[in-house]
Structures are given as structure tokens and as C-alpha cells.
Design a protein that fits this description.
The protein is built from 1 helix and 5 strands, in the order ββαβββ. With 74 residues, it is mainly beta.
Length: 74
């Protein structure tokens, strides 16, 4: 099954990169992060189809996954 992935910030050296990725049923967000060489400790939050999800969330066909770095502001 395919999911769409967007990486924001400088996570995994993939900043601003969008891609489609083939994944197996039961694949979690943590699995995808590992495959993309994105350390989870560097991820601020992960959004799937507009909702914040935990790393153990299992993705489904056609979902859009966005990895964000920690948000800082002033």
C-alpha cells in the first residue's frame, strides 16, 4: 500500500521533501521514521491526515504523513 510522506525542517536530511512510499500493512509511523533515517527523538510531532498521532500508529492506504521537528518560537 502507498502513503504520502512530507518531511519538514531538517529531519533526516530530507527537509521539505515530499514522497510516496510503498509500505506493508501494519507499518507504524516509527517504522517509517526508521526507514527514512529520521531519529524519533528529533521529531516534535507527526500528523496523519490532519491529526497528531503517536509513533505506534499504524498507517493505512493513501494516508498523508507529515513529520515535523520540535516547534520553537518567541
Amino acid at each position: 500500500m502507498q502513503v504520502e510522506i512530507q518531511v519538514y525542517g531538517e529531519l533526516g536530511g530530507l527537509e521539505g521533501r515530499a514522497m510516496c512510499k510503498e509500505v506493508n500493512p501494519g507499518t507504524t509511523l516509527a517504522d517509517i521514521a526508521q526507514q527514512l533515517h529520521i531519529p524519533l527523538e528529533e521529531v516534535g510531532f507527526i500528523v496523519v491526515d490532519g491529526r497528531v498521532r503517536s509513533p505506534d500508529y499504524q498507517v493505512m492506504e493513501g494516508q498523508r504523513v507529515c513529520f515535523f521537528p520540535p516547534v520553537m518560537g518567541g
